[in-house]
Structure of Xylulose kinase:
Amino acid sequence: MSGTQPLFLGLDLSTQQLKGVVISENSVVVYEAAVHYDKDLPQYETTNGAILGPGDGEVTSPVQMWVDALTLLVSRIKESGVDLSKIQAISGAGQQHGSVYWSADAENLLASLDPSQSLSEQLCPIAFSQARSPIWQDSSTSEECALLEKEAGGAQALTDLTGSRAYERFTGPQILKVYGKQPEVYAATARISLVSSFVPSLFLGRIAEIEVSDASGMNLTDVFTGKWNDQLLEACGGPELRRKLGPEPVPGGEVLGSISKWWVERWGFSPDCLIAPFTGDNPATVVALSAPGDALLSLGTSTTLLLSVPPTGTPPKRFTTSHLLSHPTTLDAKIAMLCYKNGGLAREQIRDEYASKDWDRFNQLVESTQPGNDGYLGFYFPLPEIIPPNVQGQLYFHHGTIVQDLEPSRQPRAILESQLLSILSRVEAILPEHAPPLNRLILSGGASLNPAIQQLAADLFSMDAFVCETAQGAGMGGALLAKYSWWKKRNGGGSFEQMMGNVAIGLRRVASPRKEISSIYHSLVPRYRQCEETVLQKLLVA
Ligand SMILES: Nc1ncnc2c1ncn2[C@@H]1O[C@H](COP(=O)(O)OP(=O)(O)O)[C@@H](O)[C@H]1O
Ligand SMILES: O=C(CO)[C@@H](O)[C@H](O)COP(=O)(O)O
């Protein structure tokens, strides 16, 4: 497959799957594949890629499952006919915030991998001081968040410095929990990786540097310089944390090194294949699919709204209710983000309960009801939510008054409308003053190919909605970052935009807003806000 031309591999180790996108030099998708953790690796007994508990709010994933997923994915890519020796560079993305704890043996083991044995056999469990990694769905660190905000001088002060107030899922509070509550694990931990720096470590044969944009989801860096902040490091892990995290974060598109011998000898990769830093799945999607003026709605396990903030002389405002992230390839640019935990899985629960576990039936019900749902609104938070923080449960309203029940046929529309109205009610506030007005809605992630969701999103945000040729926006971003590292090495430098040149990633318009329906949604925002106030009073869990 793909003749003699150079290929680039982008991986995305996300919540439910590990995905891979192979692109050609002109950025066309040559092959995509995925390993679904629950289905393909059932021995790890995950549900939607994760394990809940044993502690309250704890959510983890087995590190060995991710190691096995990587080799299974590479075997699928190879079996499909892709010539692995043509892959010039590998980069990718990881679900944000999750952390991997390496033991003191890890560096040596990674450096001396034996091609006659599997990665899993050689690394698991000995290379890790914790067999399970806390992931972004974890909400067990409220105590640590309060401590960190106090240390930083309050929630706003921490937000001004790092781009976010302390969030339970952010890696700083997660590390503080290990430091404070499992001192023996902390002491046995030589290095800590993000999910995004864990995967390139397996390719490099050494522990990889953390990438600057994903580092800004830790509450440990200055969002403007991209550097570790000593006060925050000390607060989350004492004097040893700097060493455990490794060097200062690196920008995307750098060359970290070449692929290790294990991959060359066992799989047939070229010894010259470059390994570039992986970033977070959300920043990777921004890099691949959007520009300032786009609202990017990622509909994966989480639902996230991402805005690319162009460089400017004035630093953008930081809000305690949203995130500002460093940008993977442009130090002065930023990414504004809203993230919801109850996204895809909450929609799936409604599909299973009221639409016979079938998306077509779900869509029929959406289409058989009217925009605005005749005054009904539903709020759905099976897991403790991020926005609004720490609410859990379900609540229905009719014209702003709580009602006990909602007809089954109205449920699919109710969940879509309330999830998206939550974003609409916030998006204006997080758009920085100097950013261009929003004029395109880009959809990505598993639900982005659903036509009922496409139309409802276009109507609700009053923008044309577009999708990419692949729903794997983060994998595509990874592949482009891989190509960028290769291109930059060949050209002796240059920006990501220069590398992209005139080759725009193909976006297809899938829905256009209908004016009369958009105005119904806009008029619903005050009512939505009023109901959300009630939700905060009734469903707050912490
Ligand atoms: N036709 C569809 N309509 C709505 N949602 C869908 C559809 N197909 C898949 N999904 C959703 O996509 C989600 C997975 O998306 P994906 O972007 O792969 O997630 P992640 O990257 O977090 O692993 C699933 O939870 C599923 O609910
Ligand atoms: O926590 C966040 C962002 O802050 C999540 O968006 C994770 O990055 C997981 O992403 P998906 O697996 O849902 O794409």
User: Anything to note?
Assistant: Residues 167 and 186 are 21 Å apart (CA to CA). The pocket of 5-O-phosphono-D-xylulose (ligand 2) is lined by residues 14-15, 95-97, 136, 169, 217, 280-282, 300-302, 304, 339 (CB under 6 Å). The chain has three domains: 7-282, 288-341+432-511, 344-427+515-539. The mean pLDDT is 96.
